[in-house]
Amino acid sequence: MAFEPRFTVTSNLLKSLEDIAALREKIQAATLQVSWIPTLQKDTRAQNGHSSTAIEGNPLTLEEVRLLEAGKELPATAERSKGEILNYFAGLRHVEKNARKKTIAHEDLFELHRLLALKVMDQGEAGKYRTIQVKVGNHLPPPPGQVSGLMRELLEWWNGKSKSWSPVVTSGILHYRLEAIHPFGDGNGRVGRMLALWELYRRGFDTHHIFSADEVFWENRPLYYRQLERVRTEGEDLTGWLEYTAEAIQLTLERAWERVQGLKGMKGTGKMVLLPRQEKLLALLRDRGSLTPRELWEVLGVSKQGAMNILKPLLAAGLIERIGTKKTGKYVLKGN
């Protein structure tokens, strides 16, 4: 039986989608011309990591999460709390590396869950669908014997019919449906929110990875849970939930725009036009951490001189830097 989400496109949802489109266009036009994309990306990774884990009860503050994201140690912090954050960053890197993957399979979800849940699960096994019955508040998810089939139906919809809808809508549907099925023994909340983010990346909605809707969910966690429960009390009608998640994305974009505006007065944030290969290089450095000169020539498919033509504006703008000796030097994102 195929999965068919049920919802109504209301005037409220339409208005949110229109406002989101206008905000997104404004942000994209700005960020394509400025040298602060890595700064925004770094801030967003920390916001996402803090918010998504805090919803599940992680006690670390945003500043502590920022320290962990920067590779710093927090000696007085419980190992599980640190582990949840570090796992989140690992899961986020997995999603970023597979941002444009055309077909998502069970194995992709297993790997995502394994990264997010490794050594921090209360029950079940990381990277595998659950084999036990679970209860989440008043919600009794489907029995374990139905999980694989329900997830197969969801993946078929995601890889197929979902493309006819806005990614704002489909990310909300994926988010809720994963929570409803609750396919893993533990960690479903983080996986569901990560799938929503993956959908925005996969559909090209957030090409620079600078949006953090989880921040909005965290700020009013009781409302977030009430909206999830509302779908069940309304017979799996997703209308109210989609209005809520669209409003959260709209607020996220408004905040992203404020952050963009706030960076305008910072030293070294002058405008520059990023060429496609320069954007590709920044994405590669974000994913891999560093590249040697030879690796850089090879992945970009250019000569040594061609690579320097790509590198020089980025070095001058303070986006990247070279570390190490002349023989062992590598290029990295500045500030990472």
Task: Describe, in short, the structure shown.
The protein has 336 residues and is an all-alpha fold.
What would the keywords be for this entry?
two-stranded antiparallel sheet; 336 residues; 2 strands; 60% helix; Fic-like fold; 2% strand; single chain; mainly alpha
Report on the structure:
- It is a single chain.
- This protein is mainly alpha-helical.
- The chain folds into two domains: 252 residues, Fido-like domain (Fic-like fold, Orthogonal Bundle), CATH 1.10.3290; 58 residues, Winged helix-like DNA-binding domain superfamily/Winged helix DNA-binding domain (Arc Repressor Mutant, subunit A, Orthogonal Bundle), CATH 1.10.10.
- The chain contains 14 helices and two strands; from the N terminus they run ααααααααααααααββ.
- A hairpin with a 6-residue loop joins strand 1 and strand 2.
- The protein is globular, with a radius of gyration of 21 Å.
How are the SSEs ordered, and which strands pair?
Blueprint: H1 11-31, H2 37-55, H3 62-69, H4 79-97, H5 106-117, H6 144-159, H7 167-181, H8 188-202, H9 214-219, H10 221-233, H11 239-262, H12 276-288, H13 293-300, H14 304-316, E1 320-323, E2 330-333
Antiparallel strand pairs: 1-2
Helix pairs in contact: 1-11, 2-3, 2-4, 4-5, 4-8, 6-7, 7-8, 7-11, 10-11
